[in-house]
Each structure stands twice: as structure tokens, then as C-alpha cells.
Amino acid sequence: MVANQNEDRRYGCGPIKLSCTQRLNSIRWHVFWQCIFTFFDGFIVSGVVNVIIPALEKRYELSSSKSAIIVSANDFGAFVLLIFLGYFGERRHKPKLMGAGILLMAFGCLVFSLPQFIGEKYAYTISEHSSKNGSCNLCSKRNTTSSCSSDVGEIKEYYKVYYALFIVGQMLLGIGAVPMFTIGLSYIDENCKQKLTSFYIGLTLCSDAVGVATGYIVGGSFLNVFVDVDKLDVANLPLTSSDPQWVGAWWIGFIIAVPAFILVAFPILGYPRRLPGYEELQKQRKSEAYDNDAEEITAQASFVLVVVITICKANMVPNPVHVFDFKILM
Questions:
Q1: What residues are paired with 64 via a beta bridge?
Q2: Is the pLDDT of residue 154 over 60?
Q3: Contact 44, 257 (CB under 8 A)
Q4: In the chain, which ranges are continuous DSSP H helix?
Q5: Cβ(316)–Cβ(322) under 8 Å?
Q6: Could you tell me the maximum CA-CA distance found in the chain, to the nearest angstrom?
Q7: Distance from C-alpha of 116 to C-alpha of 228, rounded to nearest angstrom
Q8: 11 domain residue, yes or no
Q9: Tens digit of pLDDT for each residue in 42-99?
């Protein structure tokens, strides 16, 4: 029985448990990977998404109410799974659930960026002050020819599909992040010394805040790149970033996040259900507790904290700036 426990607590994916990778089998390394994840989660969900909303509204003719639904879809997706996983996830293999959630977020980023790759080129209006050569090979929105009008009508029908993809992508991002922010924090708590729990959890939340700030900065810089840089020769583009018709490359941040999430998911998947030394830590905690119910009280308090955080985030959905401030205060 002891041999089976030792084997179960070795680091590795499936039957592959190399001795050279056992250095990663510690709570410090797990917190490191979790910090990388929370950085990119904040980078995309609370940083890049909030920056690119004006570009999406202009590119796909979205109203403010529709763009608000896109932003809120992340929290709605998380809310569906949050309380359920926070309770029942304690009985499952936590690192596997966390890794699966991260891979789901990578897929969500891919879904969110699909409209750029399956859609048509951006049709903009050429004005005299913005045109370099007075002509353009794209269909102008002011053009009244029958061929152009039919094309524009067909394009607007596709916008409904793109809008649905944005919502689905955001919901996948919200659902995928749930395991890390619920059972992920619990995994840290039960596999480290009690005096280090707050420090490690603080590091993960700090990484999330840094990711948000980075997402605003980097996402804003991506908007200085033309949206169809992957389809056109931007050297001959008759628009500048100061032109009212300009739309920035809103999708680049999501393409960067896809491999980033995948690269973080696999190290997380390699961790065992419980790290080596789990029993010793639990014995030490029981000896430091005032009574035998201390562990249960701590678990209940953690669950209540998750519910309170969810309610606060839901109340601040209409104002992304307040969500950003809330994460920093944590």
C-alpha cells in the first residue's frame, strides 16, 4: 500500500513519470505554474477583452448592449460551474480538473478569434483626407452598386454567427478558469504549511492583477496594427491609426494566449492528487488547531469566500473598471 501511494504521488502525465521531473513535484513549482496561468487569465479576460470592445463594435457593427453581453458572458459561464465545482471538486483529482480547465480556455481563445479567420476582409470607407492614392480594392460601405449592396447584406448575416462565437468563446474562458480559482486555491492550502498559505494565494492573485495591467497595455498596442494585417499588404493601406475608419488587430492577444494556456496546462496535469508530505502537513495542522473541527471550519470559510467573491464580481459586471480595482484590492 505504501508503494502505491508513493507511485501515485510522483510527478508525471499518465504512466510517464521521469525521475528528472520530480523536482517539479513541490508546492512551490505548482504555485509558479498557477501564477503563470493567472497572469494570462487576467491578461485576456480582464485586460485585452475590455480594450478591444470598441474595435469589435466598429468591425462587426455591434451595439453597446451586445458588447456588454459579450463581456458578461465570461462571468455567466463561470457562475454556472463555480459553486458546483467548488463543492464536488474536492473529491476529484484537482490537478487534472485544473489542467482540463486551462485547455478549455485555450479552446475558448481560439473560438473567440475565429471571426477574423473565417470572415471577410474589413470593408472601410475611403475619404479624401485618408486616401493615399484615391482608390481602394475593397468594397466601400457607401457604394450603392447592386453587387456591393448584396455583398454587404450577406456579410451582415454572418455577423450574427460571429456574435455567437464571441459569446461562446467568452463562456468557455469563464468555465475554464473556475477550477483554478476554486479547487486550485484549495490545492495550495492543503499541500503547504499553514503560515505559507496566504503568501502563495497572494502571489497567484497578484499575478492576475499584473496580467490585467499588462493586458490593457499590450492590447492597446495591438490596436495600432491594422485588423487585416494577415490578409493585406499594410504598406499600401490608405488608412492610418488616427482615421475614424481604422480598426485595430483585436485578435492578436487571443492567438498569443492559445499556446500560452496549452504550455501551462501540461505541467499542471502532471501533479498528483496530493503532494508528497501531505499526511505530515495535516498532522502538523491538527496539532496547531484548537480543536478537531478546525479543518472543517477552514473549508467552510473558504467556500463562503468563493461565494462572496462571485457575488461581488457579478455586481460589478456592468463596470469592468471596478472589476479591475476589485482584483487589485484582493
A1: none
A2: no
A3: yes
A4: 2-8, 27-41, 49-59, 64-88, 94-118, 146-181, 183-190, 194-222, 252-269, 278-288, 294-315, 320-329
A5: yes
A6: 82
A7: 8
A8: no
A9: 999 999 999 999 999 999 989 999 999 999 999 888 887 887 786 777 778 889 999 9
- Rounded Cα distance between 138 and 194, Å, is 63
SS (H, E, C) 269-303: HCCCCCCCCHHHHHHHHHHHCCCCCHHHHHHHHHH
The pTM assigned to this predicted structure is 0.77
Rounded to whole angstroms, how far apart are CA atoms 145 and 266? 53
Give the residue among 178, 184, 207, 213 at the shortest CA–CA distance from 197.
Answer: 184
The CATH number covering residue 93 comes to: 1.20.1250.20
For 168, phi then psi, to 5°, come to -65, -45
Residues 6+ apart with CB under 8 A from 304: none
Up-side HSE of residue 239: CA atoms within 13 Å toward CB?
Answer: 25
Parent domain of 91 = 24-329
Residue 19 lies in a domain: no
Q: Which value, in Å, is the radius of gyration of the alpha carbons in the chain?
A: 24
Among candidate residues 173, 49, 38, 48, the one with its CA nearest the CA of residue 111: 173
